[in-house]
Amino acid sequence: MKTMIYMLGTGAAVPSKNRGLPSIALRYLSDILLFDVGEGAQYKLIEMGLSPVKIRAVFITHLHGDHLFGLPGLIQTMAMYNRSESLIIYGPKGVEDYVNSAIEATRHRPKFNIIVREEDELYDGGKYIVKRFPVDHDMPSYGYVFEEKKRLILDTRRLENEGIPRRLWSLIKSGKDLVWNKRLIRSSDYVVEVSGYKIVYTGDTRPTFSVVENSLNADVLIHDSTFDDSYSTEAHNEGHSTAGDAGRIARSANAKMLVLTHISARYSDDARILVDDARKYHSNVVLAEDYMIIPL
Predict the structure, then answer these.
(1) d(Cα 178, Cα 68) in Å, to the nearest integer?
(2) What pLDDT, in 10s, does the model give residues 187-224?
(3) Which of 5, 119, 161, 169 lies 20 to 30 A from 16 at CA?
(4) Could you say which of 36, 66, 219, 224 is catalytic?
């Protein structure tokens, strides 16, 4: 599988016996992207077989402690592993001050460069992009969209149906027009553009149209689902969503899969009510658990 989602921490605010603090790793080919870094994220990475050295970029949704208190420890671990490649960190204004303060306080300055992007809205990883969008929380906060760039593939079924020999396929894919069996074969007729995977992570947010807008036709929507629907007033007052909110947004966005995360510690023994609430609106619902891997 070239794309895998690793749920490192799926809890909210405080860790519970079953859930750590928010952090998600996305592996695309050999790249690892990290979204939020709750305490203990570096341990979870290592335990799940992911090297901190291979993290290309970190994306922080907002500056509440449960989403970034693990960042200084992660940076120190990278330094102890003799990382040499620059680390790029995206996040709202204040992330750079936080990172610099932690480095100064601990007097442990890594030998690799740390590049903080507080204003940039787009990270280009070559074959994919990550872009941010505003969400509705109690402080400046962002969600992130991972999107594999469109790619060209051969329409092999059509080639087979028309009896065009396989020895010619590589030439056609390379863009060459050719004559076969007294017939002109145009490359453009057999090479089609297809969209790649789209994965959206909201971070903490009230239900908001910006999530719908940025999650249209997503393969996976990972949505704040802190409470069940009976606590909707409390959830919205605290800048969060219920599982039912997440289900309605996933349905409106036509997302293929909805993953519920940022689960309150009050559901430490049984969180099935969250799935029940979300499934009233969307059929393909997954309740995130720590150490869960979602392959695409």
Answers:
(1) 56
(2) 998 888 888 999 999 999 999 999 999 999 999 999 99
(3) 5
(4) 66
**Domain residue ranges in the chain:** 3-150+195-295, 152-192
Q: What are phi and psi of 127, to 5 degrees?
A: -90, 0
Tokens 């990972």 — which residue? 222
Query: What is the architecture, at CATH level 2, of domain 3-150+195-295?
Result: 4-Layer Sandwich (3.60)
Closest-CA residue to 71 (of 85, 57, 84): 57
H or E stretch covering 289: none
* Local structure of residue 138 (DSSP, 8 states): S
Nearest to 74 by CA among 111, 97, 115, 46: 46
Q: Give catalytic status of residue 66 as yes or no.
A: yes
Give the predicted TM-score (pTM) of the model.
0.91
Q: What residue type is 17 in one-letter code?
A: K
Hey, is 223 helix, strand or coil? strand
Which pair of structure tokens corresponds to residue 13?
Answer: 């605010």
Fill in the amino acid letter for 10. Answer: T
